[in-house]
Amino acid sequence: MQTNEATELVLIRHAPVQSNGLLYGRTDLPADCSDGVKISWLRDALGTPDTVICSPAQRCLQTAEAIWPGQGAAAQTKPALWEQDFGAWEGIAYADLPDLGTLALADLAAHRPPNGESFADLCARIAPEIAQIGADHCGQRVAVVAHAGTIRATLALAMGTVPAALSFEVAPLSITKILALPGGGFSVQGVNQCAE
């Protein structure tokens, strides 16, 4: 395998949102892109990618537009990249959610909120899309502006394990780099890189 045929996936978590302490996975809230220092750091760190792909969430499209003015509106959107669907828990205060902290990672990954999807379900939804992006953009650098769950699901695909990916921190406006290698393998180059 030649690394020059790999697709460099640069995953960026969207800018922070004002959720008022409510769980907002699929709720389409706007991003707060006012942190010019972090946006400038991202622009400098990333340069201009060959392709920009976004979750359809407005917070992702707004973040892409803030980083690369004029490209956010032109970004390809992929519905499969949406954040985890928390079902009946959407819009509930974090303080009022069940405490799942006592679950083992495997059980936590399999836990499905009422009328929602588990992290394992999210990973099953994300994996084919990420694999297709890698195959379609060989030799290119692709920026993917998405959600913490989407990025963790991509890490799960790269590592070949779903539960362990829940251990990763994915901060707003952070960069995670993964190579999609020819033949379907992956190499994690960096996780949760943030402006200092």
TrEMBL record:
- Does the UniProt entry include the keyword Hydrolase? yes
Question: What Enzyme Commission number(s) apply to this enzyme?
Answer: 3.1.3.73
Return the InterPro entries for the record.
His_Pase_superF_clade-1, His_PPase_superfam, PGM_Phosphatase
Q: Which domain of life is it from?
A: Bacteria
Instruction: Specify whether Iron-sulfur is a keyword of the entry.
Output: no
Gene Ontology molecular-function annotations: alpha-ribazole phosphatase activity
- Give the keywords, sorted: Hydrolase
Q: Which GO terms describe its cellular component?
A: cytoplasm
Per its UniProt entry, what is the enzyme's top EC class, as one word?
hydrolase
Q: Which PANTHER family match?
A: BROAD-SPECIFICITY PHOSPHATASE YOR283W-RELATED, HISTIDINE PHOSPHATASE FAMILY PROTEIN-RELATED
List the protein's name: Alpha-ribazole phosphatase
